[in-house]
Amino acid sequence: MAAVGVRVLPASPNWYSSRCSDASSDGRLFGFAARHRICLLDIGGGAAAAAPAFYGELIGHTDRISGFAFCHCQGQTNLCASSCDDGSVRIWDTETLAPVAEYSLHQNMISALHWSPLVKDLIVSGDEKGVIVCYWHNRSDSQQFFPEPRTIFCLTCSPHNENVVAIGYKDGMVVIIDISRKREVLHRLRGHDDEIHCLAWCPVPGEERLPAWQDELQVSSEESKVPNGDMTQDTTAKKGCYLASGSKDQTIRIWSSTRGRSVMTLKLPPLKRRGGAVDPAVKERIWLTVHWPSGRATDVVSSSFGGELLLWDLTQPGKRKWTLLGSSEGQNHSRIVFNLSPVKHQDKELLLSISMDRDVKCWDLSTLECCWSMPSLGGFVYSLAFSPVDTGCLAIGVGDSMIRVWNTLSMNNIYDVKTFWQSIKSKVTALAWHPTKEGCLAFGTDDGKVGIFDTFSSSARNKPPQISSTYHKKTVYTLAWGPPTAPLSYGGEGEQPSVTLYSCAGEGIVFQHNPWNLNGEANDINRVIRDTNSIKHKLPARTEISWKPDGKLLALGNEDGSIEIFQPPNLKLLCTIQQHHKLINAIRWHHEHGSQPELSYLIASGSVNAIIYVHNLKSVIESTSETPLTITEPFRTLAGHTAKITSLSWSPHHEGRLVSACYDGTAQVWDVMKEEPLCNYRGHQGRLLSVQWSPVDPDSIYTGADDFSVHKWHISKQEHTRPPQGKKSIEWEKKRSMQPKVKTKKKKKPVEKSSARQDPSDAMNGDESMKEMLPEENGVSDHEGEKEAQEVEVPDKVSMTVSRDPSSSAYDYSSSSLSKSSVTQKAAPVKKDPSKEKPTPDASLKKRKPRSILPCSTFMDHRSKDEMHEDCLRLAACLKTKDDNEDVSPDLKDRVHLGLFADRASLHKMIDVEGKNHLENGHPELFQQLMLWKGDMKGVLQAAAERGELTDQLVAMSPMVGYQAWVWTVEAFAKQLCFQEQYVKAASHLLSIHKVYEAVELLKVNNFYREAIVIAKARLRPEDPILKDLYTSWAALLEKDGHYSMAAKCYLGASSPYDAVKVLAKKGDATSLRTAAELALISGEEKLSATLSFRCAQDLLLSRNWVGAQEVLQQHKTLFGQRLVFCLNELLCKCLSERNPCDRKSLVPPCYHSWELNREASFWDMVIQVWQNVFGMDTMEQITCAREQLHSIEHPPSTRNTHPKQVLFHISHDLTLAALSYQTATWEKAVKSIVGAVTRSYDAGNFTLMQEICNIILPEGCDNLRHKLDSTDSQSMDACRSLEAFVAYGLLYDLWWKLPKDSVVLQKAVLDPEPCPSEQTTLERGYVSGQFSEETPDQAAVEMDENHCNTTEVQRREAERDSKTGSVDLVDRLSKLNGCKVLLSEEFAALQNTQRDIAEVQQILADMIHQHQLQRNNLQENTDGNTQESNLQQSSETESDKPHSDSHQMNGKDEVKEPITLPELTKQLLKAKQKLAEFPDNLKVFPFPDVLECCLVLLHLESQCPPELHQQALDLLRKHGSASTYKKAGRRFLT
């Protein structure tokens, strides 16, 4: 069924559709929707082929196609489906190019369509109102879903689960639904805030997480408890699949379909635009389509701003890594890309893209290069022209305001097309190549512009054309190059161009333009013709121009059907051909290079009347007659077409062979001499507008049509010889009339200015269907202007204006400049809705008479004749009585209607009766009108107010009654409006009677604060307290709803900046705090500003932005000390991260200052140097000031739960105080501050951090510091002892972890671990289970999440490090071990033992109290005896359980402790406290590592430990290790 041997430039793919193109899964066909048809390309050649071949079209829809998809299931690859704006879906077979089925289940426009990749007969579609239809076509069954009442933009069926469908909406919501019997919404994914353009499921099932994907999984508190802070793989990897979404908000999000949350956001990079066919004045819209290549879970392809395609690597963290497809210039699209369709070809993975630049491109995903590019056309093809110089170069004039120049002879690329668009801005309706100058192309447009492009030079693509300064008033029909005629021909030989450009347009005038001087005025050649031939009468309107190739004769076609032949240079009229009687559309002279030179005098012409005439002018030219001749007999007549002729072309390869293009949708080849039709081409789906015979191939012809395409076809391969006639012709019309009807409401363009050149009689003769056929260009109706006649006989010879328009549209009459009289005479009527033209039987009912205001009296006056006579008599009698006695009102009894003819009192009675009747029938407005006539307005107003029926009209009339009545009415109306909840309108009415306060109060009470403030500010004094009240009330409301910025503005308006600052700071994020601080500073609240700035800086510190933090702090002198702390914190974090580089990168990279650092100096010197250089801190005064500021702040002691960054900040505070003391050489204070810093890290349970801090600030140990201290100052010596102990403690663990390889002890320690003694030690968590859980400093300093690492890992890392550096020298180890003697302190062991005893007793007491409370609560809750009993039983069970489990945990045996009484406990506690009081105070001031823990570690070192240390450790353990944990831990050494 494919089109044989036809090469096509197809119509452009439709824009702004989420899926209107797709490729078949066998890799053979690619289809895309182009307006109301589907174009199929054969891409079977794959990347190897230079370009695809045209396969065929699917024709049948009558409206724009909004979606298209192939079936990707085995055995059905030839099936595809398309959806249409009219709500229908069709299923097609591409083998036969015919529809298989059709259904219309949607009530609205369909906006998305997909064929399920897993269920072979399931098609899912969604419409603009949010309805999803699932249709199983094999069983014609359907289901409807309505998950959200929003506009659907796209939808995609899951490739892994047949019941799951993802839907993207216009407002940015993504919904995943289950279409099985469950019919449930699985997830609503919120994150995008604009249209979802595309959804793509990951081709690989499961949700294996990549390291870079943790940026958005800020793990919730529950999840963080999972080991290592990672989701367990069972829950995620086994089911589910990732989903990618592209949105107009310029981001791509990757969603987890199991967790229903976004795991990653990619922001489009702002790419520098490469040169492309884009008008800089046009604001580029964005369309973000995404494609997930098959089998590649970590790569996503997306479109970008200007048409570039990006390949994203999802494994890259931080700034996402993307690669641009198409490395060389011109490979990329130049406008936004709408769809991406994958194709597997052999082993290559290809991707096809469609774009706003109207190119279809094929990409090779392995090389990221463009394999081929196929141009397409976005408008009618008005003109085709082959270059006479550059053979095979075809210029195409298109209705999308662009010219294509197609090199039809290109070998490596059969679609080698250049596009020219600069300065055109309108439909290109005429083209003509310069006869001798290469690359010189003249063009004419729909708006009357004439210009010349240089298509040849290398810079031509970006070079704008020369434009003639003379514009036509209407569409340019024809351009022709010819010899200059007067007045241009008067110049000397070298002063004039050899050829000039002639243009003919819709207003009937031919201009001659000088190509050397397009800025000069063009000449109207009618003037020369008039002068040369002494013509007095009005010249006909010109519609066509053609020069004989040798330049010796000029033929002009006219609107009246005549053709005139002139001789240059003075344009002497030689003859007139009076053959056609309708507007001339085409004239062509035969070529001159044949064997029969006389044939060059043949001239073929076509007009609106469907017959082509050929005339031989040889005899005329050779005659010597002085007067012009008139020819009325044709040389040959070519009849067969059934509609108007639009274009003609003689074959350059044959003699007397002609091809014609016609509105009947076909092109016809004729043997002119035999008057015989040779072949008829019917491949187009519309009316033909242009034709050209190939200059190189005698068998090839190019045609252009209003189906937006150019076809190259072969004469020898056509089955038909003549145009369709009779029945065939009717079918042909029917086929063509399936083009979409214009929807006027959709038409966004103004009515085209192309005028009507339609012949009215032609319109009457069955060309009606053509009127309807106004095709749409990408959804916008396009009245493509072409030639048509407006042949009107005007008796008084009105000057005629000509116009030419193929669409013969009714719209065009409005724009043509014909005089009204002429149009009304014979123009085709404006098309109307047929239902309105023939009056239906109900038509009279539709136009109802207005209701009578006096129905009763009217009815009474239309009764029987007898009744009427009776009326007359009654009226006469009454009037007579009245005359006799003027005081008596005439008694009309029941004939009230006679009041119309009696006195006023009777009339009033009549009005009352009529009024009552109106009220009973529910027409109060008529009653009110009657009362107004009567003059009783007050009554009306009162009645209406009582019934709540006051209207604007009544209120407007109320001043008639008086001022008071008006005020009363307005107030009543305001109340009525309040009942109807129209508060703003009510307030406006109150303002009209100057009740400003009431209006404001009304609005305030109903929460219309904005409106209330406007009124109050505009109408009241500025100092009026009500204004402040309004602002503060509104602010309170806004604050409650969380609109803090708005509330702050209200407080500012109420002159309460303090409140504004407070409310802004409420949100607590860094930007809010910063703004609040600046606001406080402006308002003079220095102290508050400093507090907020400090909070903001701490926030920034958490996100590791030290630069931002310093910027915030530097505004306040009072925060100078804090600036030093932040500076030291930054340097400390830098040192920590350099010492322990982290493998994982975090989402937010640290923002360090670029300070010059002296790496050779000690940490203290480096810090002080930065302080001096950056902060200018060199005076004693500044140091003292900073120290005072920092001394005034006391941080709480750290615990295991303190955030690592908080711990580090508090440590930095202590170290800053130490550095200030170091600078002033006050060593006593320095050592206390350092102890504070070290113990803080110890208390926080972050042992490694403690080690690192000791190594950074005391690289040489404590000896140096001890020498500087005053040995008489006992407190500083105690502090120093504590510091030495912690340094030794860190060293001790270091030595244990770095045991030499051959040591069996290490293995024993890991394989047969002993429980650890201390509650406060870092070993406690997890050492028991063979793990050593700790905070490594690189993570603490660098990472936001707290992550734990196993001892085994630490040991492995240490072991690796050891293997690199060689084993530690034994002598060095021994000296270090001897340094650990300081830890084995008898007095500290005793003190710690006592403290442990106290803690243990206190714990038992607390447990007892807790149990007691539980029992009491249970007794109170239950009144029933049985329940009490059971509860008591339970509580006693739990009571006995608890110590049991505790002891089990601690001793590993099932022994149960004997219960202990409260007095005994109290006694124990008192005893322990007395013992504690006996210890000297200096031991209790500074902390000390757990002595027994250190003993255990030393004993574990076994042979590595010097004997005296070993013995000392054993003694201490025996003496003080009475607690059960220590007994168990030391059992091995003590037995």
Summary of the model, kept short:
This protein has 1535 residues and is an alpha+beta fold. 35% of the residues lie in helices and 20% in strands. The model is unreliable at 215-237, 274-278, 742-845, 1304-1368 and 1427-1455 (pLDDT under 50).
What is the secondary structure topology, with strand pairs?
Layout (H helix, E strand, L loop, with lengths): L6 E3 L11 E3 L5 E6 L2 E6 L10 E7 L5 E6 L8 E6 L4 E5 L4 E6 L6 E6 L6 E6 L4 E5 L4 E5 L6 E6 L6 E6 L4 E5 L6 E5 L6 E6 L31 H5 L4 E6 L3 E6 L4 E7 L22 E2 L7 E5 L5 E5 L7 E4 L12 E9 L2 E8 L3 E6 L4 E7 L5 E6 L6 E6 L4 E5 L9 E4 L7 E6 L6 E6 L4 E5 L11 E2 L8 E7 L17 E6 L4 E4 L9 E2 H9 L8 E6 L6 E5 L3 E6 L4 E7 L5 E6 L12 E6 L4 E5 L1 H5 L6 E3 L4 E3 L6 E6 L6 E6 L4 E5 L4 E6 L6 E6 L6 E6 L4 E5 L11 H11 L23 H5 L3 H5 L3 E2 L2 E2 L29 H5 L4 H7 L7 H4 L5 H4 L8 H6 L4 H20 L19 H17 L3 H11 L2 H11 L4 H6 L5 H17 L3 H10 L3 H10 L3 H11 L5 H16 ...
Parallel strand pairs: 45-49
Antiparallel strand pairs: 1-57, 2-3, 3-4, 4-5, 6-7, 7-8, 8-9, 10-11, 11-12, 12-13, 14-15, 15-16, 16-17, 18-19, 19-20, 20-21, 22-23, 23-24, 24-25, 26-27, 27-28, 28-29, 30-31, 31-32, 32-33, 34-35, 35-36, 36-37, 38-39, 39-40, 40-41, 42-43, 43-44, 44-45, 46-47, 47-48, 48-50, 51-52, 52-53, 53-54, ...
Helix pairs in contact: 13-14, 14-15, 15-17, 17-18, 18-19, 19-20, 20-21, 21-22, 22-23, 23-24, 24-25, 25-26, 26-27, 27-28, 27-29, 27-30, 29-30, 30-31, 31-32, 31-34, 32-34, 34-39, 34-44, 40-41, 40-42, 44-45
